[in-house]
């Protein structure tokens, strides 16, 4: 085996450059098993000639030039994909009948903490020896170099690439021609509709979180992630899509699915996400980034109200909440609120809390009663007392909006 390993090292580069198909046929002879190499998105790179019986999953992958979603989902459910993403060791995969998958040994191909693709050895009834598993690790390392050569991910310098991305995020690079030149250098396509998505983790960022985040960024279907990096506990992505219809819906689905998947895969307790507005020009990337951060900060301050809000355009009045707070904090207390506060303190009642909940429920008596676990008649009585005590006209939209904002300001003041 040591001689075979040296032979592999000396020949692998040349073979793959000449023909990826020749490579897998050659590896197939070494392992005496059919081989498939696929990229990060599970698209077929190359596959060897068949040997004996082949299973349904292999046939479907070759026919579609991509691993079927049913197979990928089955691999996730059976814990295979998590193992492949968490380390660079060979993973022995037992037969999974429901997705038509026979026995396999798989290994992921890495460049630093990012996956480039996967190698699948269709072992059937054969078990690979320890020496063969060691050889497979060596194959993955060698194939990495060749995948980088034949991939758009062949970036000359990761540091320079990140520097360019940061310049876009901060607006430090303003010349459109220079942006185009550098984007071309790093194989970044900046056409289409662009937005910044930020995923914020409450957990410390581990290598495992990085690996899963990179994988999900590259394999989501709703939008195309064209650049990404970690900044502290935030994963920042520049995303693009060409579909004008329901573009906000696509972003919303992308973020919610990203959060759901990475939380489930890694058992994370608190992951949040947000997007800025969608723009057609690169000069607005910095604005989208600021807006995404604004959403995340607002979600931390108003967790209940903004629980299901991911997009800046859906923030509503919260877009201006900080500016409103700066104006409000120097003003006299609201007379309606103060009358209710004094009455509650004197009579041990909850009229102020009831009013807050009523406004939160869009002035729906029955929904508010449900939230407060009281009878609708009780709710109507409380609203009557609120009007009598404070003098507030609950049919006046200007007064209601003002009180609604006062409640928000007071929440910010409480911290």
Question: What can be said about this structure in brief?
Answer:
The chain is of the alpha+beta class. The protein has helices spanning 2-18, 20-31, 56-64, 69-77, 80-86, 130-149, 158-170, 176-185, 207-219, 247-266, 285-301, 321-328, 335-347, 351-360, 365-372, 376-390, 397-414, and strands at residues 35-39, 44-47, 91-93, 104-111, 114-121, 193-201, 224-231, 234-241, 271-275. Helices cover 53% and strands 14% of the residues.
Q: How would you sum up this structure, described in words?
A:
The chain has 415 residues and is of the alpha+beta class. 53% of the residues lie in helices and 14% in strands. The protein contains 17 helices and nine strands. It has helices at 2-18, 20-31, 56-64, 69-77, 80-86, 130-149, 158-170, 176-185, 207-219, 247-266, 285-301, 321-328, 335-347, 351-360, 365-372, 376-390, 397-414; strands at 35-39, 44-47, 91-93, 104-111, 114-121, 193-201, 224-231, 234-241, 271-275. The strands form two sheets. Strands 2-1-5-4-3 form a five-stranded antiparallel sheet, with helices on both faces. It has a four-stranded antiparallel sheet with strand order 7-8-6-9, with helices on both faces. A hairpin with a 4-residue loop joins strand 1 and strand 2 (44-47). It is elongated, with a radius of gyration of 28 Å.
């Amino acid at each position: 085996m040591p001689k075979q390993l040296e032979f592999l090292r000396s020949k692998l580069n040349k073979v793959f450059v000449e023909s990826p198909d020749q490579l897998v046929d050659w590896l197939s002879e070494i392992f005496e098993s059919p081989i498939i190499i696929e990229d990060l998105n599970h698209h077929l790179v190359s596959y060897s000639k068949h040997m004996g019986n082949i299973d349904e999953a292999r046939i479907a992958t070759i026919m579609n030039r991509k691993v079927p979603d049913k197979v990928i989902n089955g691999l996730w459910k059976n814990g295979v994909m998590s193992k492949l993403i968490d380390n660079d060791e060979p993973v022995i995969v037992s037969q999974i009948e429901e997705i038509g998958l026979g026995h396999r040994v798989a290994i992921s191909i890495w460049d630093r903490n990012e996956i480039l693709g996967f190698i699948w050895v269709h072992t059937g009834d054969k078990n690979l020896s320890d020496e063969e598993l060691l050889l497979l690790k060596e194959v993955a390392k060698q194939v990495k170099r060749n995948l980088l050569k034949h991939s758009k991910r062949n970036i000359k310098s990761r540091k320079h690439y990140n520097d360019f991305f940061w310049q876009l995020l901060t607006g430090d690079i303003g010349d459109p021609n220079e942006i185009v030149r550098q984007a071309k250098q790093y194989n970044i396509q900046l056409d289409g509709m662009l937005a910044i998505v930020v995923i914020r983790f409450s957990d410390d960022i581990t290598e495992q979180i990085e690996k899963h985040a990179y994988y999900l960024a590259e394999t989501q279907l709703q939008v195309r992630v064209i650049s990404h990096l970690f900044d502290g506990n935030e994963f920042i992505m520049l995303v693009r899509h060409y579909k004008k219809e329901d573009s906000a819906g696509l972003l919303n689905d992308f973020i919610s699915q990203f959060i759901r998947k990475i939380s489930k895969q890694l058992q994370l307790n608190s992951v949040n996400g947000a997007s800025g507005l969608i723009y057609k020009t690169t000069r607005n990337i910095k604005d989208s980034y600021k807006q995404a951060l604004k959403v995340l900060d607002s979600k931390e301050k108003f967790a209940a109200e903004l629980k299901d809000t991911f997009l800046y355009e859906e923030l509503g009045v919260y877009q201006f909440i900080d500016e409103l707070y700066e104006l409000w904090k120097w003003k006299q207390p609201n007379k309606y609120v103060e009358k209710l506060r004094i009455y509650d303190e004197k009579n041990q009642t909850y009229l102020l809390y009831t009013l807050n909940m009523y406004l939160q429920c869009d002035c729906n008596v029955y929904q508010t009663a449900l939230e407060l676990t009281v009878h609708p008649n009780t709710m109507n009585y409380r609203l009557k007392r609120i009007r009598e005590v404070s003098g507030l006209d609950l049919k006046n939209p200007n007064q209601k909006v003002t009180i609604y904002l006062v409640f928000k300001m007071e929440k910010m003041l409480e911290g």
